[in-house]
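Proteins fold reproducibly. Next comes a concrete instance:

***
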Amino acid sequence: MKRVLIDTNVCIDFILKRMPNFVDAKIVFEEIAKGSAQGLITASMVTDIFYLLQKANGKGKMSFRFPTSVRATLAVAMNDMDRLL
């Protein structure tokens, strides 16, 4: 299976439905959900995304749910280069 390192902005575009990049981000997440690829983010990206969502939404519910949805959809690579490659 292909492993894909997802950029922070791709995650933010998908969650916040930011156009025009939401369309492409949705395709990436759909492929991961179908099992066509394994989506990876780094451990530091979890906190970066959480912070950016809070900043975009205030301290809304979406930002607090996001880490749970990350665990459900993406694997967190623990800064181990072998795991990323």
The first strand starts at residue 2 and ends at 5. The chain has a mean pLDDT of 79. The chain has one domain: 2-79. The longest helix spans residues 43-57.
